[in-house]
Design a protein that fits this description.
The protein contains eleven helices and 14 strands. By secondary structure, it is an alpha/beta fold. Strands 7-10-11-12-13-14 form a six-stranded parallel β-sheet. A four-stranded parallel β-sheet has the order 2-1-3-4, covered by helices on one side. α5 runs parallel beside α6 and α8 packs parallel to α9. The N terminus is likely disordered. Bound molecules: iron/sulfur cluster. Iron/sulfur cluster binds next to α4.
Length: 350
């Protein structure tokens, strides 16, 4: 009898000790995680995946608000090289983990160089997470993600091929980052360069969600069939790109084919035009005119912003504002109070 009582007692002590240990483990390992990102006007996909991972581990996660906050782990996600880094860390953080292209791009002689050794891709167990969209309630009903990574073009002004590889390959299905939201923001560098493009476009069609093709689609891969497939998706906004003049014939042919199949107006179909990278004023203006002729809105992007001249600033102001370029022609546009038109300022005649 005594033996039983003793074992009973031992049993209860052991259970109690296990309970205390579990409690300790819970309180010890429930970390406070803060995530900082430099993508202030756009949700950070990395931040949302990191958040999902930590929440699944039972951690408390929030976005960085102030250096007066407390945390155990701080993540810094930097997408851009031109934004400043976080200077003042929250109180008490024992671990600081940094990653993103912004840390891996260095600028030499006004040229951006990507160095993989300074980049830290997300580990697979985080990369494969469904994004925690609750981090950004202001962007509710939107899903963000990549179906493919990589690009075969290796354009010298772009880091996609250097960072993600020289082949555009499928990395996800839509269901990996979309669960019924009304809008999908697709971030792929070169979806149409992928051998899985038809299947992936079909997933977008089946979703019936409104698609924003945020990055420029590669018009060189637009055939009649591909154009028809893209047009079956519910397009909120589509962007192509006309960056390289050497690809002019193939790009314009693709834009022409797409224009034939779509009923979008130029308000929803844009063409990115890269400037300030080895093109002249005449070449920039030429590309703008060409895409306008085909019924697209040209959207000027500027390589190494801040090193560009006044012409590009004026062209971008006019071109990127639908209301300004609807109200007057660029040649008649008066960008400053001196009253001079762009025709007078830049000697453009047609
Ligand atoms: S085609 Fe687009 S994604 Fe590919 S390297 Fe050129 S700019 Fe980058």
């Amino acid at each position: 009898m005594l033996r039983f009582e003793f074992f009973d007692l031992c049993f209860h002590i052991t259970r109690y000790m296990t309970f205390v240990k579990n409690l300790e483990m819970e309180t010890t390992f429930m970390k406070k995680v803060i995530i900082w990102s430099d993508t202030h006007n756009f949700p950070s996909i990395a931040a949302m995946k990191i958040s999902s991972f930590h929440k699944a581990c039972g951690d408390d996660v929030k976005l960085f608000e102030s250096a007066f906050d407390y945390c155990d782990v701080l993540y810094k996600s930097k997408a851009f090289s031109f934004t400043s880094d976080l200077e003042h860390y929250p109180q008490g953080c024992e671990q600081v983990l940094s990653g993103g292209s912004g840390y891996a791009i260095r600028t030499k002689n006004n040229r951006e160089c990507y160095s993989a050794e300074f980049d830290s891709p997300l580990p697979n167990e985080i990369e494969s997470q469904y994004p925690d969209y609750s981090l950004y309630p202001q962007f509710a009903d939107n899903a963000y993600g990549f179906l493919t990574r990589g690009c075969g073009n290796n354009c010298p002004f772009c880091i996609v091929s250097k960072k993600e590889g020289l082949v555009s390959r499928k990395v996800a299905d839509l269901s990996d980052f979309w669960r019924g939201q009304g809008f999908i923001k697709l971030m792929d560098g070169n979806l149409l360069n992928s051998r899985d493009r038809e299947g992936l476009l079909q997933q977008l069609i089946d979703s019936k969600a409104k698609i924003d093709y945020v990055q420029g689609l590669d018009a060189r891969f637009v055939t009649e069939d591909i154009a028809k497939l893209i047009c079956k998706t519910r397009i909120a906004m589509i962007h192509f790109a006309f960056d390289n003049l050497k690809d002019e014939t193939r790009i314009l042919r693709g834009l022409e084919i797409f224009a034939k199949h779509t009923n979008l107006t130029d308000r929803n179909r844009r063409v990115y035009i890269l400037t300030n990278y080895e093109t002249t004023q005449d070449e920039d203006w030429y590309r703008v005119q060409k895409v306008r002729e085909l019924g697209y809105q040209p959207y000027i992007t500027i390589y190494q912003k801040g090193t560009h001249g006044q012409f590009i600033t004026d062209l971008a102001r006019w071109s990127n504002s639908y209301f300004i370029n609807r109200s007057c022609d660029f040649l008649d546009y008066v960008p400053r109070v001196d009253g001079k038109t762009c025709r007078q300022l830049y000697g453009i005649t047609a």
